[in-house]
Amino acid sequence: EVPLVEEAGTPAPEEEPAPIDWDALPGCVVAWVRVPGTTVDYPIVQGDEADPDYYLTHDIYGDASVWGAPYVDAGCRDGTRSPFVIVYAHHMSDGTMFGPLEQYADEAFVAAHRTILVYTREGTVELEVFAADVLDANREGVRTDFADAAELQGYVDERLERCEVVLDHPEDAGRVWAFATCSYQTANSRTVVLAREVG
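-> C-alpha cells emitted (199 positions)
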C-alpha cells in the first residue's frame, strides 16, 4: 500500500488516450489495458513460470516497485492468445493499478463500465464484461489449462453460478479474460472481472 495521492482520479471524458509507443516499451510488455471511465491505463507483462509472482514487486523494467506491474498468469502459456487469460495487479490505496476494479462488485458500476480495451502490438481487442465476483483466495484455485472450447465453456458456466454480478451468460464464451485484484471484504478477498472478446 502507498499513501493517498490527491491528484489520482478519473480522466476527463473528452480526453483522448495517448497513443502507445510500443518501440519505447521493453519486450516483456505483451499488451496494454484501458478501462474507459476509470484510471486503469497500464502496460501488461507476461508472467514467468520460473518466478510467477515477480511482477508483484517489480515494474516493467525489472526495477523493484511496490506498485509492481499488471501481468498475465504464468500458466497462460499462449499469453494473450490463451483461451482463458488471467491478468493480476495490485489494488493500491491511492486508486492506482487495479484499485478501480473493486467497484465491479456493484452491478450498476458493471453496467456502466462493460468495455475493456486491450491493445497488443498486433491490434486492439475489445472486451465486454459479463460478470464479476468477489471470492476468497484461500478457497479458490486458479485454473489456466483447458482441453478444448467445451471444457472452457463448462468452467465459465460453473463460475457464473457463483458470481455475485452476472450481466450476461454467454453460450459461446470464446476467449475469456479475467482481471483480478485484491479487495477487502475478507482477509484474503479477490475481485475478479470476467470479460469476453467481442467484434
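Helices lie at 107-112, 149-160.
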